[in-house]
């Protein structure tokens, strides 16, 4: 019964994500409007047949901007997380492989220091020093976010190292790098994938929050974060201005959370019992 | 036991030391000369080149910017130890004093949110573990996944719109009054509750399946008492989570503080970014790092006190 629920969750997440990604990728085909075209006569209009989610303070169609903005947001967040995952996998695998070495100890110390910097604080310092832009936020993401993946990979590699297969490979004289890539890393792949799915959702939420504070991408380019920051001043009088980006963010994160839940139940039922 | 705690303290001191190095380096990397930035705000005499040069040099001397990087770091640490975080570029006041004024309201908000989160999380978590597999459990599960997908500021803004603008039961101002505490605290507490629910539910479920509970039940122990016994063992992971939540509340409060115009540290940091006020930001980041480390230490100490076995287990884990 449990695995059936897991497949439903996974299926729902994948379907939702496909729908969202499709809507974002086909933005210019789905919507006849121009995301940058201003129409001062039609500013802050309520949702109507012509503008499904209304218009913003420059009279731009919010649905069109949401769909177009999704391209920037999703691709940049995905790329940032991918870099963090790759860095984490590499460093974590090396630390696990050479457990107890100087490299391992140094890496653990660096991780301790980075863990003491909450991501929000780090991102704010970066934004203050180098200016507010989406790129700088994503840079902060990569600098901080690999830590979780490195720790997970390291512990998984340490576990896998003690298995009979690895012992056998070592006895057969297999080189260290082959053991790493053929035996150890594949075992880390599943759990890292699960973590990455959840973290992508968290990352989108964090970037949205920072953008909402005005530290993300700057107008007029359509991007979910900058739309949030832009619409904020008008939210109390025309709440529909935030509906588009907020809805797409919520649904995207929901999709990733469902995929994560489903994958976790499927890949690692034991881990699930422990962490929940 | 005491030795283990001592090692933890030492590790944390190293962490703080390296973190201070990182912060120092980051601020040094910042584009622009701090003395010039300070001058630009306090006196507009830039057209008198000679006077400007002298003032700049005096100021650089005063700020300790003329020495080597190493001596600058040492003097910076020296003043930090005297709780001197420098002077704000923007307000020209002591950063330590300004942070001291705002820290209580952030701590108050984070603390109240933590209590709300824990109460909701424990109640709902226990109920859904006891009634696992029922419709209640399913609804809670769905709610948790859903709530974890919503940005905090969206919930905050919607609550503000409904309760303050439409119903008028919440006062919009920028004061840190007790009467204004409940809504931001409730928002943060609601956002954090799903995590507690998950941890409590999962741990309680696995604990209830243990032999000691089963045998107690078979000897006629009431199920409420059984849950009470099992909860003792669920407390430890819950406390870990509370520590993590508290640190993320103190730093993450910036969003909720901004939505509800709560004059805490987050708002201070945002102003600091707006005005490129590096000393203010540096002070803010340092206080954040210190609070993370201190909370971590407190959780660790609490662990030793609650469960002496922990130390042995940790040692084994460290040698793994």
Tell me the fraction of residues in β-strands of chain B, as a range.
under 5%
User: Any idea what the shape of chain A is?
Assistant: elongated
Percent of residues in helices of chain A comes to over 70%
Low-confidence stretches of chain A: 272-276
Can you tell me about this structure?
The complex is a heterodimer of chains A (276) and B (320). In chain A, 74% of the residues lie in helices and 0% in strands. Chain A contains eleven helices and no strands. In chain A, helix 3 (62-97) packs antiparallel against helix 4 and helix 6 runs antiparallel to helix 8 (176-212). Chain A is elongated and about 75 Å long. The model of chain A is unreliable at 272-276 (pLDDT under 50). Chain B folds into two domains: 2-81, no CATH class; 102-274, MetI-like (MetI-like fold), CATH 1.10.3720.10. Chain B contains 13 helices and no strands. In chain B, helix 5 (95-130) packs antiparallel against helix 6, helix 7 (152-166) packs across helix 10 and helix 11 (265-274) packs antiparallel against helix 12 (278-306). Chain B is flat. Classes of the chains: A mainly alpha (276), B mainly alpha (320). At the A-B interface, helix 4, helix 5, helix 8, helix 10 and helix 11 of A face helix 1, helix 7, helix 8, helix 10 and helix 11 of B.
Helix and strand arrangement:
The complex is a heterodimer of chains A (276) and B (320).
Chain A: H1 2-25, H2 27-30, H3 62-97, H4 102-116, H5 119-130, H6 134-161, H7 164-171, H8 176-212, H9 224-231, H10 243-267, H11 269-275
Chain B: H1 2-29, H2 34-42, H3 49-62, H4 69-81, H5 95-130, H6 135-147, H7 152-166, H8 182-208, H9 211-218, H10 223-260, H11 265-274, H12 278-306, H13 309-318
Helix pairs in contact in B: 1-12, 5-6, 5-8, 5-10, 6-8, 7-8, 7-10, 8-10, 10-11, 10-12, 11-12
């Amino acid at each position: 019964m449990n695995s059936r629920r897991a497949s439903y969750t996974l299926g729902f997440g994948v379907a939702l994500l496909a729908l969202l990604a499709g809507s974002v990728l086909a933005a210019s085909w789905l919507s006849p409007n121009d995301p940058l075209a201003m129409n001062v006569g039609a500013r802050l209009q309520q949702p109507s047949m012509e503008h499904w989610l209304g218009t913003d303070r420059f009279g731009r169609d919010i649905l069109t901007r949401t769909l177009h903005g999704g391209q920037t947001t999703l691709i940049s967040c995905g790329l940032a997380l991918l870099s963090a995952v790759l860095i984490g996998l590499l460093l974590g695998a090396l630390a696990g492989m050479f457990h107890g070495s100087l490299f391992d100890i140094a890496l653990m110390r660096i991780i301790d220091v980075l863990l003491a910097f909450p991501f929000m604080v780090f991102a704010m310092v970066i934004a203050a020093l180098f200016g507010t832009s989406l790129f700088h936020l994503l840079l902060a993401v990569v600098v901080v976010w690999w830590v979780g993946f490195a720790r997970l990979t390291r512990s998984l590699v340490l576990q896998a190292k003690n298995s009979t297969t690895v012992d056998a490979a070592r006895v057969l004289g297999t080189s260290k790098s082959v053991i790493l890539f053929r035996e150890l890393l594949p075992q880390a792949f599943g759990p890292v994938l699960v973590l990455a799915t959840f973290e992508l959702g968290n990352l989108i939420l964090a970037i949205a929050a920072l953008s909402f504070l005005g530290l993300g991408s700057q107008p007029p380019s359509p991007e979910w974060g900058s739309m949030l920051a832009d619409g904020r001043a008008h939210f109390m009088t025309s709440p529909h201005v935030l509906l588009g980006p907020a809805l797409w963010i919520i649904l995207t994160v929901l999709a990733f959370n469902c995929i994560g839940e489903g994958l976790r139940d499927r890949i690692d039922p034991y881990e699930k019992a422990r962490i929940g | 036991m005491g030795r283990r705690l001592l090692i933890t303290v030492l590790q944390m001191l190293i962490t703080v030391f390296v973190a201070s190095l990182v912060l120092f380096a980051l601020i040094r990397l910042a584009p622009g000369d701090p003395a010039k930035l300070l001058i630009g705000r306090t006196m507009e005499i830039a057209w008198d080149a000679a006077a400007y040069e002298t003032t700049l040099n005096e100021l650089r001397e005063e700020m300790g910017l003329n020495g080597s990087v190493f001596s600058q770091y040492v003097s910076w640490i020296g003043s930090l130890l005297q709780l001197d975080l420098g002077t704000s570029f923007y307000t020209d006041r002591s950063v330590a004093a300004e942070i001291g004024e705002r820290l209580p309201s952030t701590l108050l908000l984070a603390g109240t949110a933590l209590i709300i989160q824990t109460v909701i999380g424990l109640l709902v978590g226990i109920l859904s573990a006891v009634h696992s597999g029922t419709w209640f459990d399913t609804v809670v599960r769905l709610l948790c996944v859903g709530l974890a997908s919503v940005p905090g500021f969206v919930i905050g803004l919607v609550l503000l719109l409904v309760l303050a603008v439409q119903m008028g039961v919440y006062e919009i101002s920028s004061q840190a009054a007790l009467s204004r505490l409940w809504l931001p605290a409730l928002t943060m507490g609601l956002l954090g509750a799903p995590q507690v629910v998950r941890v409590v539910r999962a741990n309680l479920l696995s604990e209830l399946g243990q032999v000691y509970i089963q045998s107690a039940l078979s000897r006629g122990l009431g199920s409420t008492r059984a849950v009470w016994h099992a909860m003792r063992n669920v407390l430890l992971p819950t406390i870990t989570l509370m520590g993590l939540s508290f640190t993320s509340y103190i730093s993450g409060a910036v969003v909720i503080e901004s939505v509800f115009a709560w004059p805490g540290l987050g708002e201070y940091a945002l102003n600091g970014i707006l005005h490129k006020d590096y000393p203010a930001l540096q002070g803010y980041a340092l206080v954040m790092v210190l609070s993370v480390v201190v909370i971590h230490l407190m959780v660790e100490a609490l662990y030793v006190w609650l469960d002496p076995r922990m130390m042995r287990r940790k040692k084994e884990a460290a040698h793994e």
